Automatic annotation (TrEMBL):
Gene Ontology terms describing biological process: mitochondrial electron transport, NADH to ubiquinone
Predominant localisation class: mitochondrion
Record protein name field: NADH dehydrogenase [ubiquinone] 1 subunit C2
Sorted UniProt keywords: Electron transport, Membrane, Mitochondrion, Mitochondrion inner membrane, Respiratory chain, Transmembrane, Transmembrane helix, Transport
Organism this protein belongs to: Hippocampus comes (Tiger tail seahorse)
Domain of life: Eukaryota
Membrane topology annotation: Single-pass membrane protein
Length: 106
């Protein structure tokens, strides 16, 4: 049992390059660069390690985020199916009905 229940296992996996993994990978790289700003060449292993850890955490954060949003969407759709009178389709208006009539000013 992980932090995503079994029903979340059916979701498609997020892309390897996504905003969370990119951001946290960059933050890991910055964290590796800060203490050794002078000795950059000697800390390449630390840069790679912290960037990889940040990328991994960002990927799994995106995976959890997708699960939470899918769960909320499912609950909202169930509610809409149970209460169709609250979500009646509105009549469609043309653009001319929405815009005020044009009166030129001279």
């Amino acid at each position: 049992m992980g932090w995503i229940p079994d029903e979340g296992k059916g979701l498609p996996p997020p892309g390897v390059v996504n905003r969370n993994s990119f951001w946290l990978g960059g933050m890991g790289w910055c964290a590796a660069m800060l203490p050794n700003a002078i000795r950059v060449m000697f800390s390449v292993h630390r840069q790679v390690l912290l960037t990889t850890i940040g990328w991994f955490l960002g990927y799994h954060l995106t995976k959890y985020e997708n699960y939470v949003h899918a769960k909320l969407d499912r609950e909202m759709n169930e509610y809409m199916k149970l209460h169709p009178d609250d979500f009646a389709p509105k009549e469609k208006k043309t653009f001319a009905e929405i815009v005020e009539p044009f009166i030129p000013v001279r």
